[in-house]
């Protein structure tokens, strides 16, 4: 018995060794990152202490850009040609390449490596700017805390500035007195619904539309929205909004306007709801503000939701490039600072000069797509490898979104898609400068991607360079 026991232990030990050995042998084919990979990071120094740089490039040292010590830089000039008959939803084609060989510029060494060169303009056909209009008949309402409101001020300014539309902000930060605690709790629990009476109170005889939004609701422009709402009679009760793209969210909350996408209510509907607000607030099993609003409208009035196509709740997270690069013009955007990151106020800057050219797509050569205001993408397998008529399901769980986002195509292997994303857009004199960056991180293999020599890969990361493409719009 003892010898048999020892023999059994040896067999178990040998078996365990074989299993462990096989595990590591199999793992070797899947290891993508060098051990202690977190120690290898791109070289992003503090450029504030660097020697003076050529003024033309000095903005590239901004801390908000966070560029590597050395970059690959190139500049392309664009001459827009206004075409009032142009359909901005179609893809414009240009036979010449957009991406060329760049210059290696040392941002920490007086921008050495840069030489001034001619910038032959590329002609692009774009639609005209939106007409300048007075939107003083719009009243927007948002309930949020002061910190989140401050975080979104530049975005609010982007779509509200110079429109004469009004914004009613109900600040939900708790005060010192007990009554403020009750008020804060009410707005936290009831959300959008709690602001209905405030909208009615501050509406004027000139107000045609009130709107309920989140602090991260963003409208690229009020013009197309006003054109759609103009088809409704604002003197009658009207409830206009957008559904969530997420089927599970619609199944759970029902057929209603989702506040992040923007909900538009006529003053006539507000007046009809006013006598019932207290009763609606006591409704059980409806904790969410959007749901309370829907429940009150459906139970106390005959009004039903009218869906406005293009209002986006964007209840999806992760890589949203497929949505933004689809060529579909959104009426609203949401979750741009939480579920995904997008500098929306900078993205839409170009639309001041060419309206619906925001997210308009242009192909260059045989492999590049420029989505205006969002990205420049180089496809290693060429343009023939993708169907630009379909939206790439790039975000998490995209397979369940066909019902709202179709036609769709599968997520691409990121190694077949080299992306330069917009990080900034600003006026420089009479020109608009857009800055697109391909980050080193996008080239670093992930844990499910194979690499060659792990040690060489680790050393190479410190030497890798961000790539910058500047587009100068000659306006």
TrEMBL record:
Pfam families assigned: DUF604
Top-rank lineage group of the source organism: Eukaryota
Membrane-traversing stretches: 12-35
UniProt entry keywords in alphabetical sequence: Membrane, Transmembrane, Transmembrane helix
Membrane in keyword set: yes
Name of this protein: Glycosyltransferase family 31 protein
């Amino acid at each position: 018995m003892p010898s048999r026991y020892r023999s059994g232990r040896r067999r178990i030990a040998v078996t365990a060794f074989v299993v462990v050995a096989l595990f590591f042998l199999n793992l070797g084919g899947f290891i993508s990152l060098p051990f202690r990979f977190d120690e290898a990071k791109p070289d992003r120094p503090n450029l504030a202490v660097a020697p003076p740089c050529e003024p033309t490039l000095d903005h590239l040292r901004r801390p908000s850009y966070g560029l590597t010590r050395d970059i690959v830089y190139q500049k392309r000039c664009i001459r827009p040609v206004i075409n009032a008959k142009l359909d901005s939803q179609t893809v414009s084609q240009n036979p010449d390449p957009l991406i060329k060989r760049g210059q290696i510029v040392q941002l920490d060494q007086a921008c050495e490596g840069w030489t001034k060169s001619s910038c032959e303009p590329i002609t692009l056909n774009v639609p005209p700017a939106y007409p300048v209009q007075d939107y003083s008949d719009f009243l927007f309402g948002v309930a949020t805390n002061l910190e989140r409101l401050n975080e979104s001020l530049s975005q609010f300014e982007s779509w509200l500035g110079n429109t004469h539309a009004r914004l009613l902000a109900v600040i939900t930060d708790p005060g010192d007195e007990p009554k403020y605690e009750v008020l804060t709790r009410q707005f936290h629990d009831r959300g959008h619904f709690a602001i209905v009476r405030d909208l009615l109170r501050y509406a004027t005889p000139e107000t045609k539309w009130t709107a309920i939004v989140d602090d991260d609701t963003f409208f690229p422009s009020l013009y197309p929205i006003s054109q759609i709402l103009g088809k409704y009679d604002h003197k009658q009760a009207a409830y206009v909004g957008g559904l969530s793209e997420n089927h599970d969210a619609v199944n759970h909350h029902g057929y209603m306007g989702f506040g992040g996408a923007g909900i538009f209510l006529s003053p006539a509907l507000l007046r009809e709801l006013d006598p019932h607000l207290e009763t609606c607030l006591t409704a059980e099993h409806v904790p969410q503000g959007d749901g309370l609003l829907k429940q009150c409208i459906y139970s106390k009035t005959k009004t039903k939701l009218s869906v406005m196509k293009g209002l986006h709740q964007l209840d999806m997270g992760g890589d949203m490039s497929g949505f933004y690069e689809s060529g579909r013009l959104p009426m609203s955007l949401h979750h741009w600072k939480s579920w995904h990151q997008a500098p929306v106020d900078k993205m839409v800057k170009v639309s001041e000069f060419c309206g619906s050219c925001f997210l308009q797509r242009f192909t260059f050569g045989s492999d590049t797509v420029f989505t205006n205001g969002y990205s420049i993408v180089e496809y290693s397998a060429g343009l023939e490898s993708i169907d630009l008529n379909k939206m790439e399901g790039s975000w998490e769980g995209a397979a369940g979104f066909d019902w709202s986002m179709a036609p769709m195509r599968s997520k691409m292997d990121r190694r077949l898609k080299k992306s330069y994303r917009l990080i900034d857009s600003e006026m420089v004199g009479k020109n608009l400068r857009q800055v697109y960056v391909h980050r080193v991180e996008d080239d670093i293999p992930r844990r499910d991607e194979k690499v060659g020599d792990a040690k060489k890969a680790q050393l190479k990361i410190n030497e890798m360079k961000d790539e910058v493409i500047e587009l100068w719009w000659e306006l």
